[in-house]
């Protein structure tokens, strides 16, 4: 049987961001787990404009090539990991824009969160994000990774130096993502 496709979605886009290093660490862990086909989806590379579709996304009447491409990308996943910083006690607007573009593509798939920031480790960002992913009918997982004071976890080469807790949390999250993606696949079958 084919492995489920897991997308690791990088929510921060600014030059000098920590997000890409955090995402590459998660991506490596997901590949090593052997549980998934893993894709890194970097919103800095996707480069969506502010939502510019004339119709509600539930109608799937996309007119723009960038939306059709984004739809095809998100659609092929069976599970997501959102790698998000905390910006002003929430998650980046770039991620909200990327979520708002689509509707059916997100549904009935599990979502894990890897958050980082200052003392809160991005937990306020994830609290806000859970609400939105639930509205899009994703299933937000309890297991996730919290990285407080993220600069302290970046090596001189810019790669992430995880603590034991971060490693164990990522393993737990990936295990649950695999379990949920298997079960929720049935939810995405057409109703007879
Ligand atoms: C616009 C902005 C707002 C921020 N707001 C918060 C915040 O509310 N809480 C927090 O813990 N860190 C906050 N920070 C610090 C970031 O979490 C930290 O700089 C992190 O590295 C940002 O992720 P990035 O490097 O991937 O962009 C903020 C940073 C920026 C740029």
From TrEMBL:
GO terms for cellular component: cytosol. It holds the Pfam family FMN_red. It comes from the Bacteria. SUPFAM superfamilies: Flavoproteins (SSF52218). InterPro entries: Flavoprotein-like_sf (IPR029039), FMN_Rdtase-like_dom (IPR005025), NAD(P)H-dep_reductase (IPR050712). PANTHER family: CHROMATE REDUCTASE, NAD(P)H-DEPENDENT FMN REDUCTASE LOT6. This is NAD(P)H-dependent FMN reductase. It comes from Nonomuraea thailandensis.
